[in-house]
Model the fold of this input.
Amino acid sequence: MISQALKPYVIGLDLGGTNSVFGIVDSRGDIKATTAIKTQSYSQVSEYVDASIDALQIIIDQVGGIDKIKAMGIGAPNANFYKGTIEYAPNLVWGHECVVPLAEMFSQKLGIPVAITNDANAAAIGEMTYGVARGMKNFIMLTLGTGVGSGIVINGQLVYGCDGFAGELGHVIMRRENGRLCGCGRTGCLEAYCSATGVARTAREFLSTSNEPSLLRDMKPEDITSFDVSVAAGKGDELAKRVYDFTGEMLGEACADFAAFASPEAFVFFGGLTKAGDLIMDPIKKSYDEHVFHTFRGKAQFLISGLDGSSAAVLGASAIGWDIQE
Amino acid sequence: MISQALKPYVIGLDLGGTNSVFGIVDSRGDIKATTAIKTQSYSQVSEYVDASIDALQIIIDQVGGIDKIKAMGIGAPNANFYKGTIEYAPNLVWGHECVVPLAEMFSQKLGIPVAITNDANAAAIGEMTYGVARGMKNFIMLTLGTGVGSGIVINGQLVYGCDGFAGELGHVIMRRENGRLCGCGRTGCLEAYCSATGVARTAREFLSTSNEPSLLRDMKPEDITSFDVSVAAGKGDELAKRVYDFTGEMLGEACADFAAFASPEAFVFFGGLTKAGDLIMDPIKKSYDEHVFHTFRGKAQFLISGLDGSSAAVLGASAIGWDIQE
Done:
């Protein structure tokens, strides 16, 4: 407690392919100061880190200097928690062909401990620290965005596995025959159906295999996004609602399998698809109840992230900072 | 260390529907004394516990008295680790209609801490304490017997979930369409295919859907057991070997999904089916390599239990005793 009183803040970095957003956060999850740089503007990681430090220095000074800061947490693609590295991240100009020891680089410049993990794990820790999973020891976070990511908490700890990369629930197989091609090169992955792109694809499939009237027919099929589907569903479009039913049913089936593994007290959903609210959550819950092994029935809550969407990634990243064992 | 020197033993109880086998075990997994009673001979749990204590007293005296014993571990069906109970166990005369606080009952009679968990979890702890998973922090135990059970270790701890019942990997769904009916009432569970009964059923299916010659045709289909399949396969019977290929392929696919969850350093297999050796392990490994998400490829070992089959259950149960926090 003394250390938290003396060093009341952590730095969070949400490192995306386009933007890098920094926040200085207190233990209640209040963001005290924030800044950002363009991730893409630097061809070398050393330049990226130098530019980050320059931007950070200003907000560090705003909160009283580096002595007020306990640690830094980074949420980034292809992050290896154990090694503190980003490994062959296809979307990072300075990181797609190599292993970047990013935690160590920031730690040397700032003089504080730095940890790094992937976005979905950061989201799970953020939810456990500041959000709807506060106090929970066993829950599964599913991030429904461009892809389907996951962060798994068991016995109060993030599951990293033997290599630091555990928790790729977007890549469990939901269709073993005639499954959709996934970005990972395999077929039938959960992500191929239940990501934002998967939802748009389901809509296009439903449109092409029926003559059912739909607001979505006013668009070119290739232009339809998951956002368009949610807008149509919000207006009562039956086909669009069936897209959510289909997506939610599959998520419910997947969660039923995850329960057989971990028997979590909650599934927490995060990301664009959750904006559809009951349209997606109701079929998830219904399908889960129908499919789950009897022992686990009625035990798990289904929750939507409690963190504000625009700052959730920075909060999640910052939350890793509190957990660092010095 | 002092406590272990003063109390060098734990008691293990392998509580099955027919027999209850007790062993007194040291920290290296040597069984110093053993005894057994018939589980079925008692209609009341109090009689069962009294008979157990009478039998135990003799072997406790053999090792120098109760002061030499740190704790007792019980492996039992439908065991709830958190509550120390057996809950509605269909195979137990005195336990199929109620919740039995068995850990507390033994603890009161013996004056030592007692913990209880299901057989597969006990097997996993046994493997971690005395067997091939010694020193591992992340592994998954799959018991291939009458059913398919599992014990999952993450960050060095057994996964119990929010209710004490996590780790039912025999009941993840492997066939979502036209799946086999499982004993749990759902269809397509791993257990319906990869248990001993599942293997016999696969053999009957293969026999009935082809005219391929097979040694198994000398038997009545309904009499075929997984043991018969292994004997035929051992003699080079092609159909019997294909039964193992089919079973191993499905186990490999299932393990690929489990890797996406936990990225374990090993899968440890236990039970009758493992006696088939490479006949089952080779197709498991091949299928796993084909199906696993690229990040996890080549990282997990596939091992057969290192514990002697006849004493493995007692050893596993006893191993829980070392873990009890007093």
Q: What stands out?
A: Chain A has two domains: 2-127+310-323, 135-305. Chain A touches chain B at residues 137-138, 152, 154-155, 157, 159-163, 165-169, 171-177, 184-186, 253, 256-258, 260-265, 291, 293-296, 299-300 (CB under 8 Å). The domain at 2-127+310-323 of chain A is CATH 3.30.420.40 (Nucleotidyltransferase; domain 5).
